[in-house]
Design goal:
Layout lengths: L1 H26 L1 H5 L1 E2 L17 E6 L5 E7 L6 E6 L3 E2 L5 H7 L4 E7 L12 H15 L10 E6 L1 H12 L4 E5 L5 H8 L26 E6 L7 H10 L4 E6 L7 H4 L1 H16 L9
Parallel strand pairs: 1-5, 4-6, 4-7, 7-8, 8-9, 9-10
Antiparallel strand pairs: 2-3, 3-6
Helix pairs in contact: 4-5
């Protein structure tokens, strides 16, 4: 009997610890998910890298002032609307932007609320509103057309790109190092303690991608230490056709565009080239 009581007491203590951890998780959820770097942190001199980035100011539907950079390319064949990940700000992507320009793309990258020069504080619904505002704004810019607009989301930004594609037209969707949902990520981080129920942010891509009929390219590093490769593959398998999956050999979470080498850029180039050959009116709807 005493041994049984000890077991029950241990179970009770464990249950209490899980409950306390869940409460802590809810209270710190935003700080766990979002890691913004506010201006002046970062690299704010794109000219030093030969990038003619134009400052773009715009507003989200709830009045939050946002900031972005538009990097035009002479003779651009398409425009990349870039939804970046959960850490840093747009200025930390300058090197990556520079490496993409040979693909003949205009690039519009923006900061969600609370990042860089954008006002406010980030939360799930807020970054969705900011993503929609960025979509609206990019189509106002000279040389940009929905017929040649590619939505590019990396990591958390992929969740925003999926949400934007769900509500708007675009030529195609490119998702790099993207997870399936907040719940799945929590299970990967703490497999022995099911805390998905305690997370208010859904960050749900896996239940949306089956509805997206536009062409999709998924890329994922096979050594991703942040978003497990199998979650990226699971998201791809749930997606509707047409779709392609490219494995970035030897790449972790933040070095895909470096470790991927020529093969990485060739996969992007081929996807963009082939997608542009198909009139949007002939895409599956």
């Amino acid at each position: 009997m005493k041994a049984l009581m000890t077991i029950f007491q241990s179970i009770g203590v464990m249950a209490l610890l899980v409950l306390l951890y869940a409460v802590l998780l809810v209270g710190c959820e935003k700080k766990i998910i979002f890691h913004p770097a506010k201006f002046p942190e970062g690299y704010w001199n794109p000219v030093s890298l030969g990038l003619k980035a134009k400052d773009i100011s715009f507003q989200s539907e709830d009045g939050v002032n946002l900031h972005g950079w538009f990097v035009p390319t002479s003779g651009a064949r398409a425009t990349l609307l870039w939804f970046h990940g959960n850490a840093g700000n747009l200025s930390h992507r300058l090197d990556n932007i520079q490496r993409l320009l040979p693909l003949k793309l205009n690039i519009f990258i923006f900061d969600y609320r609370g990042y860089g020069k954008s006002e406010g504080e980030p939360d799930e619904q807020g970054i969705y509103k900011d993503s929609q505002a960025a979509y609206n704004k990019v189509l106002e810019l000279k040389g940009v057309s929905v017929d040649s607009l590619f939505l590019f989301g990396r990591s958390l930004g992929g969740i925003c790109a999926v949400e934007t594609a769900l509500n708007n037209s675009a030529r195609a969707l490119i998702l790099e190092s993207v997870f399936t949902s907040a719940s799945d990520m929590s299970r990967k981080i703490m497999p022995l303690i099911p805390l998905g129920w305690a997370i208010r942010s859904k960050l749900d891509a896996i239940n949306k991608v089956p509805e997206l009929k536009l062409p999709k390219l998924f890329l994922h590093g096979d050594r991703d230490e942040i978003v497990p490769f199998d979650l990226g593959r699971k998201l791809y398998e749930a997606a509707a056709d047409p779709k392609n999956f490219h494995i970035i050999r030897g790449a972790g979470h933040n070095d895909t565009y470096i470790m991927g080498g020529r093969d990485y850029y060739n996969s992007l180039d081929e996807f963009i080239t082939e997608t542009l050959k198909i009139p949007m009116t002939l895409q599956k709807i």
